[in-house]
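Action item from last meeting closed. Structure (127 res):
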């Protein structure tokens, strides 16, 4: 099992919300822009993915919200809510970014800022 880590919402919540605003995502993690090229990077559930990162909003189905019957599984894939591919950093949250989160690595605030800067760049430069 991997070690449990968590980001302070107090410290990382605002920069992450700023990142979502900048790339035209709602504060749930859903793309709200109108760019057709960007829309092609969304899957059937509206989850975003490019070569550098992916964002999957919290799934509100009964199973993911802990109300499912025993053995029931979510039809959506098991992707993390946020995945930064170059360092394989994975972040999950409960309902809203980055509430009740857990992640697979300890990172510094500077690494976090570099990561969302790189994501922003790839988001707009992707072709
Ligand atoms: Zn679900």
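Sequence:
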């Amino acid at each position: 099992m991997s070690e449990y880590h968590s980001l302070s919402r107090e410290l990382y919540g605002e920069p992450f919300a700023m990142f979502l605003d900048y790339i035209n995502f709602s504060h749930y993690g859903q793309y709200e822009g109108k760019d057709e090229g960007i829309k092609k990077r969304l899957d059937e559930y509206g989850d975003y993915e490019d070569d550098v990162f992916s964002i999957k909003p919290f799934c509100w189905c009964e199973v993911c919200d802990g109300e499912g019957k025993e053995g029931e599984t979510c039809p959506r894939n098991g992707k993390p809510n946020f995945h930064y591919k170059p360092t394989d950093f994975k972040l999950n949250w409960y309902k809203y970014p980055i509430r009740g989160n857990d992640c697979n690595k300890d990172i510094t605030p500077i690494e976090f800022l570099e990561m969302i800067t790189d994501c922003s760049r790839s988001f707009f430069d992707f072709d």
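Note appended to the action item: The chain has three helices and five strands.
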